Amino acid sequence: MTPCFLASVLRGQVHNALLEFKGETRPVIGRGGDDDILQALPDDLPHQAVLHRTVMGVITTALQASEQGQKIYWVGGIEAYNLRHLGHVFWLSKNRKEHIQDEAFTRQYEHFADYVEQAKATGDAEMRRSLMLLKVYNDIPQRLAALEQQTVKEEAEASITVTTVHRAKGLEWDNVALFYDFPDIFELEETPDQQDDELNLLYVGVTRAIKRLALNASVESILRHIIDRRRQKNDQSDSPVFSN
């Protein structure tokens, strides 16, 4: 099953595949057949929105956009994304705690090794992505300052909108990409309720796009599972794997 095949699935049917995976039996009617399902959004779009599972995922995309000189709009405002935490982790890694103006943080993490150990022990996605960003960028304070400069208050002025999927609820954009920080549903070692929460967030993500939607690996894995399951049921019939 090729990525091109997955990309040919109508967005309304992506909705229904997620609902089917959740155990819903009544399909949702999609907007129509003109929506594009892609592996990645085209580079020449005037604007795109990138939806994330984690705050550090949002910051990752913003840092990449900053490198390209793009104007960035943060849903809820840049202040909502706690960029200071990444700066704190950077200075902790350099043993320069005098730069950290957060007593609670310095009390909790006396040494950088304490932060690393907690990230490993808890598997916290935000902490692990913070550590990943430290490996990618050795000039975090300067990068964060650049983000402040390239942030705009009006979305119409931005070439990219960044947000968590939580903050995206109720909003829509022409062009939407799902970031790769959503967990693989099939690898989650969580309760059914927690898995359902993750599925709900993916559903919110795929329903934010009006014209174009770029899938991530989490949605693709669910689509493959649903397609395989439907094929097994339709082996003896001429019914299409996906139908409206």
Describe the structure in brief.
The protein is 46% helix and 11% strand. It has 244 residues and is α/β, with parallel strands linked by helices. The longest helix is centred in the C-terminal third of the chain and has 17 residues, at 217-233.
Walk me through what this model shows.
The chain has 244 residues and is of the alpha/beta class. It has ten helices and six strands, in the order H-H-E-E-H-E-H-H-H-H-H-E-E-H-E-H. It has one domain. Helix 9 (192-206) links the parallel strand 5 and strand 6. Helix 2 packs antiparallel against helix 9, helix 2 crosses helix 10 (217-233) and helix 6 (112-122) packs across helix 7. The relative contact order is 0.21. The mean pLDDT is 88.
Largest sheet: 6 strands, parallel
- Mean pLDDT, all residues: 88
How many domain units? 1
Number of E strands = 6
* Percentage beta strand: 5-15%
Poorly predicted spans: none
What is the straight-line distance between the termini? 20 Å
Number of helices: 10
Can you list the strand order of the major beta sheet?
1-6-5-2-4-3
Shape: globular
Topology as H/E string? HHEEHEHHHHHEEHEH
Helix fraction by DSSP (H/I, runs of at least 4): 40-55%
**Radius of gyration from the alpha-carbon trace, in angstroms:** 20 Å
Going by helix content, strand content and strand pairing, the class is: alpha/beta
What's the layout of helices and strands?
Blueprint: H1 3-7, H2 11-22, E1 36-38, E2 48-52, H3 55-67, E3 72-74, H4 83-93, H5 103-108, H6 112-122, H7 125-136, H8 140-150, E4 160-164, E5 173-178, H9 192-206, E6 209-214, H10 217-233
